[in-house]
Design a protein that fits this description.
single chain; alpha/beta; Cobalt-precorrin-4 Transmethylase, domain 1; Methyltransferase, Cobalt-precorrin-4 Transmethylase, Domain 2; 3 domains; five-stranded parallel sheet; five-stranded mixed sheet; 11 helices; 10 strands; binds S-adenosylmethionine
Length: about 280
């Protein structure tokens, strides 16, 4: 028996299985992912030629069905119907399906039809890059790819500018220099990281401020698959006593003491006790 081949798992119950696959290093495919692909009756694949290579690596030959969320109308209902009675695996070319990849509508329709949905967690470039960057991980926003056209890109960056979270963007080598230049212009000198070819031979992570990394890439362009990670905006300076007095004076004209204190506490982010004490003092003068 060839132990390198995943054994077919006959006990899998019917349903849709979302199978994450490697983003570079084939050893990152989990044993459970391999067993699920081996047990699948059909594999819904973003690109069947790419998935055929992964299956060949596993010593498997399986029926495949090309799948995109914009596939012809009959494809998705047919897959949902099959998932009701068979094991349907969903894979994308690399990483976690549905993350900047097809699958969301298939999951939505399986749920609507009462078909079981199981996910097999695994590689995802966004999360892998976040772990490499050395930037805050407690709150992050995945924003996918920036638009290719300059004006739409600048607008998208302006929309991201005020978000108080680490930003994660996908990018491809040829567009990296232009995107970094636009990010440096739109977001200023925030700390950032560019993680390239994660888990592959030319893996590299550059760190610095956005203008520093933009200059580096402008001088020496990089190829391959890329994730950009950007630190949240710096916390605003705490409101001064003058700010507090001005905000309270305006609020007390329009509202009761209680409402004015609540509104100013929330707008200036100061402790309620401090705002309340100052409001009382102002009322008495
Ligand atoms: N579903 C995938 C995932 O879970 O990461 C992402 C698919 S998206 C179409 C492809 C993009 O992911 C690439 O353009 C790149 O931004 C990023 N990516 C994929 N593999 C990568 C790798 N090995 N290193 C860095 N970025 C990668």
């Amino acid at each position: 028996m060839n132990t390198s081949q995943p054994a077919e798992d006959k006990v899998l119950s019917p349903g849709l299985y979302i199978v994450a696959t490697p983003i570079g290093n084939l050893q990152d495919l989990s044993a459970r992912a391999a067993a699920t692909l081996a047990a699948a009756d059909v594999i819904a694949a973003e690109d069947t030629r790419v998935t055929a290579k992964l299956l060949a690596h596993l010593g498997l030959k399986k029926p495949m069905q090309p799948y995109h969320d914009h596939s012809a109308e009959h494809v998705r209902p047919a897959l949902v119907a099959r998932a009701a009675r068979e094991v349907v695996a969903l894979v994308s070319d690399a990483g976690t399906p549905l993350i900047s990849d097809p699958g969301y509508k298939l999951v939505r329709d399986c749920r609507a039809a009462g078909v079981a949905v199981t996910t097999l967690p695994g590689p995802c470039a966004a999360i892998a890059a976040l772990t490499l960057a050395g930037l805050p991980t407690d709150r992050f926003l995945f924003a996918g790819f920036l638009p290719a056209k300059a004006q739409a890109r600048a607008e998208a960056i302006a929309e991201l500018a005020s978000i108080r979270a680490t930003l994660i963007l996908y990018e491809a080598g040829p567009r990296l220099a232009a995107s970094l230049a636009a990010l440096a212009e739109g977001l200023g000198p925030r700390p950032a990281a560019v993680a390239r070819e994660i888990s592959k031979y030319y893996e590299e992570t550059l760190t610095g401020t956005l203008p520093e990394i933009a200059a580096l890439i402008a001088a020496k362009p990089r190829k391959g698959e890329i994730v950009i990670i950007i630190a949240p905006p710096a916390a605003p300076a705490p409101a001064s006593e003058a700010d507090l007095d001005a905000a309270l004076a305006a609020a007390l004209v329009e509202s009761s003491l209680k409402t004015a204190v609540a509104n100013v506490t929330s707008s200036l982010g100061l402790p309620r006790a401090q705002v309340y004490a100052r409001a009382l003092a102002l009322k008495q003068t």
